[in-house]
Amino acid sequence: VGDYMKLIVAIIKPSRLEEVRQALNSLDVHGMTVTEVKGYGRQKGHSEIYRGTEYAVHFLPKLKVEIAVDDDLAD
User: From CA 67, how far away is CA 32, in angstroms rounded?
Assistant: First the structure.
């Protein structure tokens, strides 16, 4: 176990959480913090129709995944 650790933060689509969790488990990373957040990047939102009225949705639901790993594992 190294003396230093790094905090890795990733913003992912909610549908990718299980895939990310399994990939981290395969690397012996078994702890993570997941927070529901909203944001946009390349997608730049979309529009939805609610009760016959169209609304622009600028912020999409995302998940913020945080893990702390040994410094050498982060590389």
Answer: 5
- pTM here? 0.75
Residue type, 14: P
Residues 27, 14: Cα–Cα separation, whole Å: 21
H/E element, 19: helix 17-26
Amino acid in position 1: V
| Angstrom distance (rounded) from CA 59 to CA 61 | 7
Do the beta carbons of residue 66 and residue 19 sit within 8 Å? no
> Which residues 6+ apart lie within 8 Å of 38 measured at CB?
59, 60, 61, 62
Each residue's pLDDT expressed in tens, for the chain with a length of 75 residues = 558 889 999 999 999 999 999 999 999 888 999 999 988 777 666 677 777 887 777 778 899 999 998 887 776
